[in-house]
Amino acid sequence: MIYFIGMDDTDNAESRGTGHLARQVAACLSNEFKVIGVVRHQLFFDPRVPYTKNNSSATIIIEAENGTDLEAVFRYVKGCMLADFQPGSDPGLCVAAGVPEEVTLFGRRTQKELVTQEEARQLASKHGILLEGLGGTEGGVIGALASVGLSASGEDGRYVLVGNMRELTGLHPVEMVMASGVDHVQTPDGQMVTQGKVLTTKLRPARRGGKAVAVVQWNEDHWQPLKLD
Prior knowledge:
The chain starts with a strand and ends with a strand. The longest helix has 14 residues, at 70-83. It is built from six helices and twelve strands. It is an alpha+beta fold. It has a six-stranded antiparallel β-sheet with strand order 5-4-1-3-2-6, with helices on both faces. Strands 8, 10, 11 and 12 form a four-stranded mixed β-sheet that branches. Strands 7-9 form a two-stranded antiparallel sheet. The protein has helices at 18-29, 70-83, 101-109, 117-126, 140-153, 174-179; strands spanning 2-8, 34-42, 56-63, 92-96, 130-133, 158-161, 171-173, 184-186, 197-199, 206-208, 211-219, 222-225.
C-alpha cells in the first residue's frame, strides 16, 4: 500500500527548508518502510499567500504493508516535525493512503487561487484523512493536504529525493542515471533517451505517470536536465 505524507510551512526565513526536513524524515522512515521518494510541489505564488520563500510543499511517498497503522505513521512523523519546530513557522501535516480525486482537485486549486484552512480541514474530515496543524497559525494544513492530493495524482511536482540520485554529480551515462532510481529519461516531447551522458548535478526528475522521469534536452555533447513542476 502506498502512503502519502504531506508537509508544509515548516520553515522560517533563516532555517532549513521543508524539502530538507522531508528528506530527513524520509531517511528515518526508511528504517521501517520502502521510501519511494520525496516530491516537491509548487503552490500558488502570490503576495497574498503568507509563504516563507517559494510557497512549495513536500510529500514523502512510502510503501507499507497492508494493515500498517496509518495513525502510528502520523504520530511518528508529527514527533519528528515537532522536534525540529522552527520559531515563526506554521507547519501542517497530512497522512493518507487512498486519496480521492476531490483532494487532488483541491491541490490543483491551491496552485492557482487562494483557499482557506477551513476548506482543507472540512475536506480532510469528509474523507477521513489525517490532517493537523502543528504550531503557529497552522496555515500549513492547506499545503500539506494539497501536497498529498498532487502527489497522489502522479502527474505533478518534481523529486527532490529518489533512490541515490542525490549522490550523483557531473556527467553520467543514461544507464547509471536509471540505476540511481530514475525510472525514465526522455525529451520534452516524450522520446525515450537510452544513450549519451546526462548532467546529474542537482538532477530533479518530474513526477509523471507516478514515476520519476528525467526530462532532458540536448546541449552540445550531453543531455541537460530540465526542472519541471
